[in-house]
Write a structure and sequence with these properties.
four-stranded mixed β-sheet
């Protein structure tokens, strides 16, 4: 087993984590075994669930895979079979294919006049699964790469009643974040380059009060540790704003106070980050005209999956008067 995989597993166990990984064999069907002890040194590939928490109900499950040399595995065919482990034997629940979402990592380098710095490639395997009970669950991960099927890998994890951040269907917190009206310079609230003034015009609270669909991104393009925030803003939020900016409020919130970040690299969550109980970044939330969370995405995400949620949410909203939509589009630089 690789050093990276061992470190990941150790950190989860030390924190009383929700996850226990076991790399080993297992047959298809209800006879599959999910060991509770991590097996060291077995297998050619090592998966990890990226979600901080999984909860009862529908979940967007993100999985990363590395090989024995610590290299990420890209573009494999991945099939997932989920099992409820709360009974005397594993109970098969559902199965699905995972879709690989690649990303070119980057960040805004404020030391180089805001130039975009490349940081390599990454990716995640994304699937949707619904869990009907809390407690112990397992997923059997079948990986095929370069035409060769790896031995299926059983992976244990825990399902909670709720996630820390708002769940789909929850009322969106009515945050009153700092906007352009409250600062002398947009760089106080936006580490993008160039900045995005069109996404700092309105508070979440005001957009909710106007009963508008909202596309809300918590991202820090210059300081994102995973280097996925700038790609989310560039390849997800910008194209969506260009297409749907007249039909929804697009809001970008820096999750940390940029002053302490720039001065001493201290991450002090802003009030809105605390309102939404977020752990890490980036996050994108799609909020309906009814003020409830319609979809949420964290970490690596694709334009296609976020756009699908945005389009559906806009379609479900009461039709805004044409004059109002036109005025909104004109007011947004």
């Amino acid at each position: 087993m690789t050093r990276r995989h061992l470190a990941f597993a150790a950190s989860l166990l030390a924190a009383g984590s929700m996850l226990l990984a076991a790399c080993g064999g297992g047959s298809n069907g209800d006879a599959v075994s999910f060991p509770t002890v991590i097996a060291l040194g077995k297998g050619n590939v090592f998966p990890a669930i990226n979600n901080a928490l999984l909860a009862r109900g529908d979940n967007r499950v993100s999985i990363s895979i590395i090989d024995r040399n610590d290299n990420p595995v890209f573009g494999a065919a991945v099939h997932l079979r989920f099992y409820d482990l709360n009974g005397p034997k594993p109970r098969f629940s559902s199965e699905t294919d995972a879709v690989f979402v690649p990303v070119e990592l980057s960040y805004v380098d404020e030391q180089s006049a805001g130039a975009t710095a490349k940081a390599g490639a990454s990716g995640a395997y994304i699937a949707h699964a619904s869990f009907d009970a809390t407690g112990d669950w397992g997923v059997q991960i079948a990986i095929t790469r370069d035409g060769r099927a790896e031995k299926p890998i059983p992976y244990r994890f825990n399902v909670q009643e709720r996630t820390q951040e708002p769940m789909v269907g929850d009322p969106a917190p009515a945050s009153r974040q700092i906007t352009l009206a409250n600062v002398a310079d947009i760089t106080e609230i936006d580490s993008s380059y160039p900045p995005r003034p069109q996404m700092h015009q309105v508070t979440v609270a005001d957009a909710l009060a106007a009963h508008r669909p909202i596309v809300l991104a918590f991202a820090t393009p210059a300081f994102c540790r995973s280097r996925t925030c700038a790609p989310v803003m560039d390849t997800v939020m910008d194209p969506l704003y260009a297409k749907y900016g007249a039909q929804a409020a697009f809001i970008h919130i820096e999750p940390y106070d940029l002053g302490p970040l720039r001065q001493s690299n201290v991450q002090e969550p802003v009030r809105a980050t605390r309102d939404w109980a977020l752990q890490g970044e980036p996050w994108v939330f799609v909020i309906g005209a009814d003020g409830r969370v319609a979809a949420k995405f964290d970490g690596i995400m694709s334009l296609a999956e976020v756009e699908s949620a945005v389009a559906a949410t806009i379609a479900a909203a009461p039709q805004a008067p044409a004059a109002t939509a036109a005025a909104t589009a004109t007011a947004s630089p």
